[in-house]
Amino acid sequence: MTDVTNGAANHNTPAVLVLEDGRMFRGRSYGAVGTTLGEAVFATGMTGYQETLTDPSYDRQIVVQTAPHIGNTGVNTEDPESRRIWVAGYVVRDAARRPSNWRSEGSLDEELARQGVVGIQGVDTRAITRHLREHRTMRAGIFSGSDAERSDKELLDEVLGSAPMEGSRLAEEVSVDESYTVEPGDHGWEGEPRFTIAAVDLGIKSMTPHRFAERGVRVHVLPASSTLDDVKAVGPDGFFMSNGPGDPATADGQVALLRSVLDEKIPYFGICFGNQILGRALGFGTYKLRYGHRGINQPVLDRRTGKVEITSQNHGFAVDAPLDGPTPAPEERYGRVEVSHVSLNDQVVEGLACLDIPAFSVQYHPEAAAGPHDAAYLFDRFIDLMDSQKTSQSEEAK
Ligand SMILES: NC(=O)CC[C@H](N)C(=O)O
């Protein structure tokens, strides 16, 4: 929830970050002035703040940047990953006073103010991060201007009255209302599209359809509430579910949709929320991590190849699946499944691969915006999966 009471920030305007356990960090306003509430999380990316801010998976989250200097390259119109900034609030140590970059079209401070995003600067982000890491991510508020002058108790009560992330259903809030198509020809692909997929937007980042399109895949992006008929209407060779905000335990509609798609033997690839939905469709549970994984420097082991990837991540929940070997999926009709990828920081499940149906997913972000490109091979793996499914279906038809 954001309540902006007056205009752009003046850098001497007081601001305070209040955590739900009563810890307070006083600083100065950044971006819009007013009040905002959300879940405080930390992100460890050294670069790519525009991609972070515009990632719809950050809806309702107050993002603390561990990189101390933010805003130095300004903002441009090329890097956003969606139509707007989604973070509920923004916490930085040292905000750049003046942007300097050949692509810069304006200052981050002004852009945050223009979009009504309340932030705070001049706080000890290292101390905040350590606190969240030791205690867990928690509800928080940023209060600036006259709102920062209210009593500590009033501010804390407001934070304690806000909704927790557990149980939040947010994908519908950030998804598109109308479907649209991303054409390979608009992304450098020459010739006819090779495949067509239906991609459900649960908070999709624009780089994801781009990565498909540049490989010759036509992408029909569909709203979060789409049905099996909507999916089949585009004649898909494959099905995709995107990243997105909120608690995967609330995504019953999408779990039911994915099950019906898997029952049709349409190849599936999921990213992040799409990985959690595959986990649930197979019958596993999900749970909230203590402080999550957010940043563009997260090491993951591909257990099939033994290779380590440095990945971009943004998740607060994870799939609860057994790490040892292929196991039968709790939903028996889907056969065996294995945890294909695992976090090298804490052994959290980072990928699932089905052995008896054409479906796999990862918890991290191979679209790499921002972030390293190590995991781009996953888009090719999905193309190979669609290819072999098409071949085996045409052989069956003979
Ligand atoms: N980026 C994502 O898709 C995040 C998925 C889910 N909202 C989580 O926090 O774990």
Textual characterization of the structure:
Pfam families: CPSase_sm_chain, GATase. This is Carbamoyl phosphate synthase small chain. This protein is α/β, with parallel strands linked by helices and 398 residues long. It contains ten helices and 20 strands. It has two domains: 159 residues, Carbamoyl-phosphate synthase small subunit, N-terminal domain (Glucose Oxidase, domain 1, 3-Layer(bba) Sandwich); 227 residues, Rossmann fold (3-Layer(aba) Sandwich). Strand 3, helix 1 and strand 4 form a beta-alpha-beta unit. The chain is globular. About 1% of the residues have low confidence. Bound molecules: glutamine. Glutamine binds next to strand 16.
Give the tags.
398 residues, alpha/beta, Glucose Oxidase, domain 1, Rossmann fold, 2 domains, 11-stranded mixed sheet, 7-stranded mixed sheet, 10 helices, 20 strands, globular, binds glutamine, amino-acid biosynthesis, ligase, nucleotide-binding, GATASE
